[in-house]
TrEMBL record:
Membrane disposition: Peripheral membrane protein
Residues in NAD(P)-binding domain copies: 14-157
One Pfam family named in its UniProt record: NAD_binding_10
Classification via InterPro entries: NAD(P)-bd_dom, NAD(P)-bd_dom_sf
Protein name: NAD(P)-binding domain-containing protein
Family named by the database record: Belongs to the FMP52 family.
GO BP annotation list: import into nucleus
Length: 249
């Protein structure tokens, strides 16, 4: 797995969603990768003005990832923006199956298929030198009483335990989308009309554009690309404010 500048490979999960598509655009326009791969249930649709000469889109069955192990090999940075809502999924069980199961199962396979050649001196294990960057949510807490934050927190825990040297977790607040949702989300529309002006004039850092989330994820990956191999999983969390500050630099 090449790690030289300009010879790295990015993998984006969930590139058809609001954050994932913004992340894909930013990585294609500004990332230092010789190959960008998307893996999803369908290809992402991009405008012709977005450079796509190094883009490779793959479709998989997330309910049978074992059949697609080869698609996850030889990557350096993984941007995971895969997720759903209870309403879109149809039930709490289906929500967990997609929002948590798909993400954690993908993370485990990526870690297994991209093992580091360097052996840890402390526990003789081989952590994957893939940098796994996950877009979670503000308030994620595996011990929460509520479905959404609890699932997000449990997903974070599963990623951390998957076996990576480096995990970065992003906690955005209310997401300000670029494109209209395919399905109208009434509560999101109402909340957005209230929270967006409050966020703009108060500086409470309650909301963030999806473009800023994607840009912050790419900047963190770029900054950490040359860091030395870790013997244990190094985990960093990024708040809404920290992401906003990164995009202003």
């Amino acid at each position: 797995m090449s790690t030289e500048a300009g010879k790295r490979t990015a993998l984006i999960l969930g590139a058809t969603g609001a954050v994932g598509k913004a992340c894909l655009r930013d990585v294609l326009q500004n990332g230092n990768y010789n190959k960008v791969i998307t893996i999803g249930r369908r290809p992402a649709q991009l405008d012709d003005n977005i450079p796509q000469n190094n883009l490779e889109q793959k479709t998989v069955d997330f309910d049978n990832l074992e059949a697609s192990r080869a698609e996850f090999r030889n990557v350096n940075d993984v941007y995971c923006c895969l997720g759903t809502t209870r309403a879109d999924a149809g039930s709490a069980e289906a929500f967990r199956h997609i929002d948590q199961g798909y993400v954690v199962n993908s993370a485990k396979i990526i870690a297994e298929e991209n093992k580091s050649q360097e052996t840890s001196t402390t526990n003789n294990s081989k952590l994957s030198n893939v940098h796994f960057l996950y877009c979670s949510s503000k308030g994620a807490d595996k011990n929460s009483m509520f479905l959404y934050p609890q699932s997000k927190g449990q997903t974070e825990d599963g990623i951390i335990k998957a076996g990576f040297q480096r995990v970065s977790i992003f906690h955005p607040g209310f997401l300000q989308v670029e494109e209209p949702r395919k399905q109208t989300r009434l509560l999101e529309s109402v909340f957005g009309s209230i929270i967006t002006p409050i966020n703009r004039y108060t500086g409470f850092h309650m909301a963030i554009p999806v473009t800023s989330v994607g840009q912050a994820m790419r900047k963190v990956a770029s900054q950490d690309a040359t860091k030395p191999i870790a013997e244990t999983t190094q985990v960093k969390y990024y708040s809404n404010k920290e992401m906003e500050d990164m995009t202003k630099q």
